[in-house]
Amino acid sequence: MSDVNAPKRRYSSARRIEQASATRHSVIAAARVLFIERGYAATTVGEIAGRAGVAVDTVYASVGRKPALLREVVETAISGTDHAVPAEQRDYVKRLRQAATAQEKIKIYTQALAGIQPRLAPVYLALRDAGSTDPECAALWTEISQRRAANMRRFIVDLVATGELRKDRPTEELADVVWSMNGPEYWILLVAERGWTPQQFAAWLGDAWSLLLLEPR
């Protein structure tokens, strides 16, 4: 009897997992829109639930409280998936690690940024603004900012390994330059405010980093 029922149970379990994933996706998508449009402080969990078409308790069960919602909105914007993905596991980082020259590494990274920033920049600014009044959001802002800085140090180490990085400036200083120029604020200034295209931004950033970071040819 158990053998007959097993496929049905497996199907039901898979169906529940699929439904839970779809609900979580809807909740995070709703939170993203409202946090960007209205701001973190002005958005209630009830409004997120209403936009997602679920009950408030479902929001708490599928993602968590409002700070957890903001964290998931940020992490999914960074990864481009429904969950956080460590930097070392992202496809573009793997390709960057395998690239032989500094120019190739810079091109891979700047092109990746052109795909990431359209979804990340508005969320990142919403987090920054939320951090001015909410301690948990301020802690998340600091965590994400420091994590990005650490990733930029690894990027500079990758460039050092090619033998092409300039040697007249400290590597920490060069990492800080990359950190400042890959920030969502820089993207907002040039793309959102000055009307640059993502491709134009990526090309400019690639040229700028090649001039600023590498030994003259």
| CATH architecture descriptor text of the largest domain | Orthogonal Bundle
Rg, Å, rounded: 21 Å
Query: Mean pLDDT score, rounded?
Result: 91
Number of domains: 2
Compute the number of helices: 10
Could you walk me through the main structural features you see in this protein, from its secondary elements to its overall organization?
This protein is mainly α and 217 residues long. The protein has 2 domains: 1-81, Tetracycline Repressor, domain 2 (Orthogonal Bundle), CATH 1.10.357; 86-217, Orthogonal Bundle (Tetracycline Repressor, domain 2). Helix content is 77%, strand content 0%. The chain is built from 10 helices and no strands. It has helices at residues 2-38, 45-52, 56-62, 66-79, 91-98, 102-131, 135-161, 171-181, 184-193, 198-213. Helix 1 packs across helix 4 and helix 7 (135-161) packs across helix 8 (171-181). The longest helix has 37 residues, at 2-38. The termini are far apart.
